């Protein structure tokens, strides 16, 4: 009997060790997925920051070039200044840009920090859950209430022009099965149902 209890104990110990190994493997898999996600997130953030910076630089450069081409005399006066102006136009614009950036970043930062503190969250995940419980839920379109796949652009535009704006109505039939039909067909459906019930 002692041998049987030792066998059972060793079997249970093996089962526990096997479970521990499975849990460790599962946790390692989760950590790898997390690292993969954050690596992708960082790459996406770097990409978007680069695109934003280049777009701003190109936009500012093209605007400056078009102004210079449009009125070169006053453009040069804005760069060098004159006796009547205490500072050049570029310095004035740069100062305005700096103050505008300062006010925008500070104002948004204070607003977001205030919302964070009012919510009472301690980390981003807790904040997400609290905001998710406060804000209205977005209903899922499952099953889809309208078409979601189209053969081409022509098919999509035809659908938008003809079918998209029509109201649809659920009608309960005699056998308690629901039928989705267009509002224009309701009268015809009701008449057919009424006539079929009279014939019986």
TrEMBL record:
Q: Where are its TM segments located?
A: 43-67, 92-116
Q: Where primarily located? A: mitochondrion
* Keyword line: Membrane, Mitochondrion, Mitochondrion inner membrane, Transmembrane, Transmembrane helix
One GO CC term on file = mitochondrial inner membrane
Q: Where is the signal peptide?
A: none
Q: What does this protein do?
A: Scaffold protein that participates in the c-ring assembly of mitochondrial ATP synthase (F(1)F(0) ATP synthase or complex V) by facilitating the membrane insertion and oligomer formation of the subunit c/ATP5MC3. Participates in the incorporation of the c-ring into vestigial complexes. Additionally influences the incorporation of subunits MT-ATP6, MT-ATP8, ATP5MJ, and ATP5MK in the ATP synthase.
The name this protein goes by in its record:
Transmembrane protein 242
Species, as recorded: Vespula pensylvanica (Western yellow jacket)
């Amino acid at each position: 009997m002692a041998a049987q209890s030792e066998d059972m104990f060793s079997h249970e110990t093996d089962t526990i060790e096997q479970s521990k190994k499975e849990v460790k493997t599962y946790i390692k898999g989760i950590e790898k997925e997390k690292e993969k996600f954050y690596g992708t997130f960082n790459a996406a953030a770097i990409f978007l920051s680069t695109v934003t910076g280049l777009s701003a630089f190109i936009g500012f450069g093209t605007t400056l070039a078009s102004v210079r081409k449009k009125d070169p005399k006053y453009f040069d006066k804005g760069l060098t200044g004159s006796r009547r102006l205490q500072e050049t136009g570029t310095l004035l614009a740069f100062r305005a840009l700096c103050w505008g950036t300062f006010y925008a970043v500070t104002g948004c930062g204070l607003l977001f920090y205030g919302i964070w503190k009012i919510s009472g969250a301690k980390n981003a995940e807790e904040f997400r859950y609290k905001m998710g419980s406060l804000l209205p839920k977005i209903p899922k379109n499952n099953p889809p209430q309208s078409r979601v796949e189209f053969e081409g652009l022509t098919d999509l535009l035809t659908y938008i022009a003809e079918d998209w704006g029509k109201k649809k109505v659920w009608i309960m039939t005699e056998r308690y099965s629901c039928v989705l039909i267009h509002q224009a067909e309701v009268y015809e459906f009701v008449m057919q149902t009424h006539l079929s019930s009279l014939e019986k």
